[in-house]
Specification:
With 256 residues, the chain is α/β, with parallel strands linked by helices. The chain has helices spanning 16-21, 42-46, 63-72, 89-100, 172-186, 194-204, 210-216, 223-249, 252-255, and strands at residues 3-9, 29-35, 53-56, 77-82, 85-87, 107-110, 114-116, 119-121, 131-136, 140-141, 152-153, 157-159, 164-169.
């Protein structure tokens, strides 16, 4: 059973080597798509690990380019990664053992701890943060409709036990940059009115509400990073709503 590792990268020269080094022992094929808005040496670093590096046109919905990379893969199994993720040694061993056992499942969810303000978050719904990244070729794909979507797998799925380490926010400004980018995309999907998006959802939403994250899912046990995570998760709903008004009316003051 051969494994194709696929990823999309933009301005990731500092992260991509760490990501690719971790999968050398399990990858029979490495496919890297580099966004053409990249201004650093991401492509050059990637070519040290694989010849299969392609520059692709920038798309706001980056899942479209991820899906194109998936379609290019030739392995029996596809492991789709982001450049800020690292396959732990334990996970690499588990992947090899799993696919060579010819499992009945066509896809597997991977547990993912998120690095935030100097630590991996373990509470607040931030862990295990399962993500569906390993699937048989031809059985899994990205719908490319939503910024927060998961892959869709035809058939049964299972869960692996070992961690896919997610270093999404090595510094807080990295989080702010992504926060801004994601709320831009969320603004195109906003539903509901002023009270719902400014007060109800930020407090009570089942996934991003502050009270849900900080108390129901015990985010307070992650200390100050847990509080900040809960706060900004809730604020993203309101910010996306305000951006949607700005997009619609052109003048936020008049919209309100």
């Amino acid at each position: 059973m051969k494994v194709s590792v696929v990823l999309l990268a933009i301005n990731a020269e500092r992260e991509i080597a760490r990501c690719l080094k971790a999968i050398l022992g399990i990858a029979d094929e490495i496919i890297v798509f580099v966004d053409d808005k990249t201004t650093d040496k991401t492509a050059a670093v990637a070519r040290k690990f694989t010849k299969n590096v392609t520059i692709v046109p920038h798309l706001d919905n980056f899942h479209i380019n991820k899906q194109k990379a998936i379609e290019k893969a030739t392995g029996d199994w596809i492991l789709q990664l982001d450049v800020d993720e690292v396959v732990s040694e334990e996970l690499a061993d588990e992947v090899k053992k799993t696919i060579t056992s010819d499992p009945v499942e066509n896809g597997f969810w991977l547990p993912r701890p998120n690095w935030f303000l100097g630590r991996f978050l373990r509470k607040g719904g931030a862990y295990p943060d399962y993500t569906l990244r390993l699937y048989r070729r031809g059985k899994g794909y990205l719908p490319a409709k939503s910024v927060h979507e998961q892959a869709v797998v035809d058939g049964q799925t299972g869960y692996l036990k070992n961690d896919l380490l997610h270093y999404a926010y090595p510094r807080f400004y990295n989080y702010v940059e992504r926060f801004n980018r994601y709320t831009d995309l969320q603004a195109k999907e906003v539903a509901g009115g002023f009270v719902t998006n400014m007060f109800v959802k930020p407090l009570f939403d089942s996934r991003q509400g502050f009270l849900t994250i900080y108390f129901r899912h015990l985010g307070f046990l992650d200390g100050f990073p847990g509080f900040v995570w809960a706060l900004f998760s809730a604020l993203s709903i309101s910010i996306a709503y305000l951006k949607s008004l700005e997009n619609k009316y052109g003048n936020l003051g008049k919209a309100l």
